[in-house]
Amino acid sequence: MKTLKFHITGMHCSACEMLTESELSDLPHIKSVKASLSERIVTISGDFSDKTPEIITEELNGVLKKHGYSLFSEKPEGNAKWSDFKIAVPIALGFLLVFVALQKLGIVNLLTGGTTGYGTAFLVGIIASLSTCMAIVGGLVLSMSANFAKEGDKVKPQVLFHIGRLISFFILGGAIGALGSAFQLGGMGTFILSLLVGAVMLVLGINLLDIFHWTKKLQPTLPKFLSSRMLQVKKVNQTLTPFLLGAITFFLPCGFTQSMQLYALSTGHFTSGALTMLVFALGTLPVLSLLSFTSLGLKDKTKSGVFFKTAGIIVIFFALFNILNGMVAFGLIQPIYNL
After folding, report:
1. Residue 29: how many CB atoms within 10 A of its CB?
2. Does this model's pTM top 0.70?
3. Helix/strand/coil for 84
4. Alpha-carbon torsion 192, 194, 196, 199, what sign?
């Protein structure tokens, strides 16, 4: 038995920690895995025989690289690729121009009104499904697809997974909304929650840029042991396992999901909270469905620094405007834009 430490790149949130630990723990010679987002370190204990560190690193990367993570025995230097912004910024600006056009048509509601509309929640869901914050969900889908495909059942488990996900987001989102009404948040409470939503998304967006590593320590999350215990369900090969896996994704540490959950709490209504989370889940559905039914890999997407920097810029945009809208709605500032 040996305990080795590796430096890791490609992690952006606590979901990445869980996915890394889950994937490596499934290897037969690995006893324990501990991933740290803030330190960008993975500690692994297992039986490595007489293999050299280089061979061990190569074998472990064979499991992780499909998710966009890379292990190194020595700390890599200068992994922040500023040149990616030359492509990321124009793409992000193009997306935001389309978003503003949709806002003008009344399809989404973010830049006016002080509240996050269902169209905006749907767009946030799309962005979330394309980011590493949904990597753990994508990993679950791919793992489940492979396991049930071996038994010749390729469609039913996928359908049950997505049904379980949509139902849980609707019911639990409604429960969070109802909880908000029980607390009688009032104007000040709603304002504080709107700032929290913006802060969570702002930290997430900065983390996606992958240039300021200290911000990864600020990413809020549920206690990891709770989410990790839930993931053990994937090892239970029963008919309802896919449904349960879909349902527990509501509790996995995704910054996008957390920001929508905070907003659902601020609505103070079961229906509003339920619909917000349902529409957000529907936004994630297209990409997750592709993962389910076409075995679409994450490798090419997650290796692209341009992609994540683009997503980070867009998320920061959403965060800043959410904070500004909260301040406008509370009367602290006058509207400073008229788009």
Report:
1. 12
2. no
3. helix
4. negative
Tokens matching residue 164? 């379980």
CA dist., res. 129 & res. 285, Å (int): 8
pLDDT, tens only, 98-127: 877 776 776 655 444 444 577 778 888 888
The DSSP element (H or E) to which 58 belongs, if any, is helix 53-64
For residue 32, what is the enclosing H or E element? strand 30-36
The mean pLDDT of 286-296, rounded to a whole number, is 68
Same domain? 91 vs 47: no
Q: Which residues contact 187 (CB under 8 A, 6 or more apart)?
A: 330
Residues in the chain: 339
Domain annotation covers residue 218: yes
Rounded to the nearest integer, the mean pLDDT of the chain is 76
Q: Where does a domain end: 31, 48, 72?
A: 72
Cβ atoms < 10 Å from Cβ of 259: 29
Contacts made by residues 166-172, CB under 8 angstroms, sequence distance 24+: 166/246, 166/278, 166/281, 166/282, 166/285, 167/247, 168/246, 168/247, 168/248, 168/249, 168/250, 169/250, 169/277, 169/278, 169/280, 169/281, 170/274, 170/275, 170/277, 170/278, 170/281, 171/274, 172/250, 172/277
Instruction: Specify the pLDDT at position 168.
Output: 94
Q: How confident is the model at residue 182 (pLDDT cuts 50, 70, 90)?
A: confident
pLDDT tens per residue across span 218-237: 665 555 555 555 555 555 55
Same-domain pairing of 257 and 297: yes
Residue 202: which of 95, 287, 321, 293 has the closest Cα?
321
- State how far the Cα of 145 lies from the Cα of 74, in Å rounded to an integer: 35
